[in-house]
Amino acid sequence: MSRIDELIAELCPDGVEFKELGEVITSLRTGLNPRQNFTLNPSGAENYYVTVRELGGFDVRVSGKTDRVDDVGLALIQNRSKLQAGDVLFSGTGTIGRTAFVAEKPDNWNIKEGVYAITPDPKAIHAKFLIYLFHTSTIRCQILAQADGSTVASIGMAILKKIRIPVPPLEVQREVVKILDTFTKLEAELEAELEARQRQYKYYRDALLGFDDRENIRWATLGEIGNFVRGSGIQKSDFTESGVGCIHYGQIHTHYGTWANESKSFISPDFAARLRKARTGDLVIATTSEDDEAVAKAVAWLGDENVAVSTDAYIFQHSLNPKYVSYFFQTELFQSQKKPHITGTKVRRISGESMAKIRMPVPPLDEQERIVAILDKFDTLVNDLSSGLPAELKARRQQYAHYRDRLLSFREAA
Q1: Residues 350 and 244 placed together within one structural domain of the fold
Q2: Looking at the DSSP assignment, which residues form a beta bridge with residue 123?
């Protein structure tokens, strides 16, 4: 019998009491909408404006991409949210259910409208226990079932207060938190190792592909190396269960990595006959995105059959090692050269004519193959979902979620 089982047998042998969230908290409030109250990202602002993006489980993760407010705006939000140490943050709009723990009263950040600040009653519920509950499948299903909204999903504070949760004695809660904290720490260590390996991978990729002019390496523009051919019109509504493989530009952002030999989607042979296709060894390049970093994301096509390519993507036909070229498109050298050529406001894009002007090192094929062999090992380690660190992290998360749900499943008292 575990320590938790012993405590339950001693303190609540007839089951655990379930209560509405509103019964075990002392306060529930939210932040402010910037459009109605203050200017977002004014010049010189040094205070962070926390949205759902920054809620990282137990931490508030601010970064260079986090929005900012000036001192006046921060004071307005503080007056509304009144954040205190020990509060639990919960996203009530957009991606519902993201959380964070306020370890110390913040002095240079505060929360957006739609991020809720919950003050647990310390005599009734442990703050971390509440966060773990919010992430269980049963409580999440209960919360999402109460959400509404057509464009942006949301759950109102009054409805959130009605969510029923198990409230075992505090001794049981503390023991559960102790165990789950250990799992969380192990997961965080694996995440940190993956991040470190990704930084190492980026460093070696840029070093291996960053030949300088002093080395005896030929340099050429992409236009001198090959040809850029624009893709044809393929909509998602054109997809079929089988047929000729096709690559939609959006899938390059969400599905494909450095290379691929199988397509995610298919179109009919009759439709495919009218479209432009990538041959084995060609690059398929997504030329539009909402952010500059993702513009010109490329995948090397290594499949046995030609694959149709959609509009907003280009086919780069060349005679180099295809993986070598695809890895080059990921380097800082490529990124720095493409930025001056990106156009557009909300939707950012780059043309084939502009990409043709970008210069790259062209070592002999055997050197290209050597570099690819090294980078393939790193790529598998940090990106492959079937092996390497991502696979291990995925398995650890699944194990953790299963164990967490079991620990937080209580028999309700009659």
Answers
A1: yes
A2: none
Q: Contact, 322 vs 303, CB < 8 A?
A: no
Please tell me the number of Cα atoms within 13 Å of 339 on its side-chain side.
Answer: 6
Residue 11 structural domain? 1-16+176-195+364-414
Q: Mark whether 160 and 185 lie in a shared domain.
A: no
- Is the full-model pTM beyond 0.70? no
Examine the domain organization and report whether 185 and 144 are in the same domain.
Answer: no
Q: Kindly state whether residue 200 falls inside one of the protein's structural domains.
A: no
Is the distance from CB of 149 to CB of 120 less than 8 angstroms? no
Pair (160, 235) in one structural domain: no
Cα distance between residue 272 and residue 268, in whole Å: 6
Tokens of 44: 């010189």
Total domains in the fold of the chain: 3
**348 in a domain, yes or no?**
yes
pLDDT by residue for the chain (414 residues), tens only, comes to: 478 778 887 788 888 999 999 999 999 999 988 777 888 888 888 899 999 999 999 999 988 889 999 998 899 999 999 999 999 999 999 899 999 999 999 999 999 999 999 999 999 999 999 999 999 999 999 999 998 876 678 999 999 999 999 999 999 999 999 999 988 888 888 888 888 888 888 888 888 888 765 567 899 999 999 999 999 989 889 999 999 999 999 999 999 999 999 999 999 999 999 999 999 999 999 999 988 999 999 999 999 999 999 999 999 999 999 999 999 999 999 999 999 999 998 899 999 999 999 999 999 999 999 999 999 988 888 777 566 777 777 888 888 888 888 888 888 887
Q: Dmax over Cα atoms in the chain, in whole Å?
A: 81
Residues 264 and 320 reside in one and the same domain: yes
